[in-house]
């Protein structure tokens, strides 16, 4: 949700929020799921070869799924906005009294007096574009999407996933014994998850230490569960 | 984003949107990534045993990562809301004129006259709770989060991921030859992705056929890429 009237603290959040959100989504999944997959397979097979292949396949699949998924989510948002915009233009023509009532309801909901509700509604409805923009934002809660956003988002998420996924996998490239490689993977990944969780918490404004520990804990739990079920099905 | 003044079409979107969003996120990733992983491994190994283990490890890891991820995202949203709420209460005490100016700026931005901007601002600022609620919603763009939401979201996403992931993996349980199992997996998964994409598009209000095809295409591309890189690294 965008904000054009913000405090300094809000605006700081805003400038980084889109890219940040993408990198956070991509990296966190990239660090966590390939890590857990490699850990799980380390419980079931003794050599790193197959783990590297599985890990690479997972990173490629995950990067594409998340990247294209992000792209389509952005496209869908745009299409949805466009179709609702068209519908609102039709409605202010076809049922203006109902649409005015909805503007009035909005002003009532924020606490204006009956007199101001009516006056403000008349002013909004004087200009059709202004009226529709108002309905889009405050009746439907839709902000105009950024057209470049879908493309950028896809790229950011996909690349972040791949970068994140290479970290837990890298020890398996160099160490043939999977149990040995796992030790390095666990250490490297948990450190990265902690650092990543720290910055994520810092930027989203939650306590950094507990935030970092939580992100690390998710990774450890996912890896532990994967290790457990892989042993079970071995 | 909530909407308390909506048309019938908006309200329909709303009732299902939270659960739907979770199931869509969980199932789409669950169908796509384990499918692509299994397909990729089918290009590199000839028996299904290791693919089942890798797939199960991935589903467990992904389900936990997405479920816990969803839970923490909900918690973070709640914490962020609470800390911004506290800050707004402090600011209307400490710098009321600046905060009033921001209310006025909002009314200016939607197109009200100078006279109504001032009158409406005075009415909003009469009641401190009403004033802060207004700032939260229209200055910061924050809706009050639903406290049960984080827990439910986690469960919905995690379970949806596991359910989605079992579908592409199931042929490998019964068919020892991985290339044979892959054929059934491809058919079953692409059908599920199409059906899933159809309903997803229907509910999000985009053209259903192209929406369904897009979801299916993502799955196919991810699986193809995974197959390709697994062959390459074999």
UniProtKB/TrEMBL annotation, chains A, B:
Localization terms from the record: Endomembrane system
Keyword Cytoplasm appears in the UniProt entry: no
Keyword terms, alphabetized: Membrane, Transmembrane, Transmembrane helix
Any one GO cellular component localisation term in the record: endomembrane system
Protein's GO biological process: intracellular manganese ion homeostasis
Transmembrane regions listed in the UniProt entry: 50-73, 154-175, 181-199, 211-233
Keyword GTP-binding: no
Membrane topology: Multi-pass membrane protein
Molecular function terms from GO: manganese ion transmembrane transporter activity
InterPro entries: Ccc1_fam
Protein name: Iron transporter
Organism annotation: Ginsengibacter hankyongi
């Amino acid at each position: 949700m965008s904000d054009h009237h913000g405090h300094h603290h809000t605006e700081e959040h805003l400038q980084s929020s889109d890219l940040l959100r993408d990198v956070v989504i991509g990296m966190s999944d990239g660090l966590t799921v390939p890590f857990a997959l490699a850990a799980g397979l380390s419980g079931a097979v003794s050599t790193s070869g197959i783990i590297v292949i599985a890990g690479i396949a997972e990173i490629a699949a995950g990067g594409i799924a998340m990247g294209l998924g992000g792209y389509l989510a952005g496209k869908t948002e745009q299409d949805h906005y466009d179709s609702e915009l068209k519908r609102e233009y039709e409605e202010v023509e076809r049922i203006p009294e109902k649409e005015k009532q909805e503007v009035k309801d909005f002003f009532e909901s924020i606490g204006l007096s009956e007199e101001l509700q009516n006056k403000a509604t008349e002013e909004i409805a004087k200009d059709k574009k202004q009226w529709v923009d108002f309905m889009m934002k405050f009746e439907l809660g839709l902000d105009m999407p950024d057209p470049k956003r879908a493309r950028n988002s896809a790229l950011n998420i996909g690349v972040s996933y791949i970068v994140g996924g290479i970290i837990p996998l890298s020890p398996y490239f160099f160490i043939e014994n999977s149990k040995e490689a796992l030790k390095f993977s666990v250490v490297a990944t948990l450190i990265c998850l902690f650092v990543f969780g720290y910055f994520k918490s810092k930027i989203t404004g939650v306590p950094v230490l507990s935030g970092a520990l939580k992100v690390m804990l998710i990774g450890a739990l996912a890896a532990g569960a994967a290790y457990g079920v892989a042993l079970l099905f071995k």
